[in-house]
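User: Could you write out the 3D structure of this protein bound to zinc ion? I've included everything you need below.
Assistant: Certainly. Input first, then the structure.
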Amino acid sequence: MSLDYKFEGWLGHDPSSAKGKMQWGFFEPKEWEETDVDIKISHCGICGTDLHNLRSGWGPTIYPCCVGHEIVGNAIRVGSKVEGIHIGDRVGVGAQCDSCCERDCEECSSGNENYCPRKWIGTYNAIHKNGGKSYGGYATYNRSPSRFVFKIPDAIESKHAAPMLCAGITTYAPLKRNNCGPGTKVGIIGFGGLGHFGLMWAKALGAEVTVISRKSDKKDDAFEMGATKFIATAEEENWAIRNAGSLNMIFSILSSSKLPYPEYLSLLCKDGTFIQFGVPEDGPLTIPAISLVMKRVKMTGSLIGSPSEIREMLQFAAENVIKPWVKELPMKDANQAIVDMTDGKARYRYVLVN
Ligand SMILES: [Zn+2]
Ligand SMILES: [Zn+2]
């Protein structure tokens, strides 16, 4: 087996890298273990988390940092202890590339690795159990532990599979966990990469979906994807009163603490569930207790999905022909792509292609 490939990618060296100042360079992947897979990257989606990390928005980033955690490519080296993946297989890696994986860890042993309280290893900007650093997918190659490497079903194109591995699973897992199905009325606040996946999954599960956005410029897209209703909060007077109590479940995807959360909560009916995905850098959410009390509303959060949920999602996507709206861009244009992503231009996910 030829091992003469080099790990190269777009590296952020300081917070200014988030403004389109990543630099191309070599990096040293974690030391090889026989449970690992090396992937020749063909596609990598651009996630909002990439920008938070490049600019140290959630705390100090370990620079140099190569972001990207919606990785698809071909396995080119497979450890002797890896099961179910072979050289040449089309595979993917999402936002998490390892956890403690100990038998006595309640979460890891019950298939909830994404909530492992002991060791949560991100696909980039994290330290592996063997001390090596993790590097993401704006790159030529990726090395990840096989427990978090997934075979991509033939029916799903790589450009569609890549964004499923973070944006897709982040919205799929909570819909399933909260028993979304026929009759469920789902509201989606923030109609971007995650939001448009949420809409497509919910629709495929038989739910009715209302998209809630500031303006109506994405209204036609939302209806084309299967939304039944669209609320433009900056354009419709009394939108909260007129739509009060109309939803069972709300996905809150925006990363700002300065949003009309009481009004959003008023859209829920009794026993409704408000699920927060976005993690604002600008402070805590302020929720009046009355918003929870009057209708026995539940407020919760959600973090990606587990390996078994990711496998289930890929199967579901293949069977239901789920196709996210993506725009492919050459890997060489990654800097421009993250600037355009920051400016909200993505309709609805950028995918870098090698
Ligand atoms: Zn992500
Ligand atoms: Zn664990």
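The chain has two domains: 8-157+324-353, 167-301.
User: Perfect, thank you.
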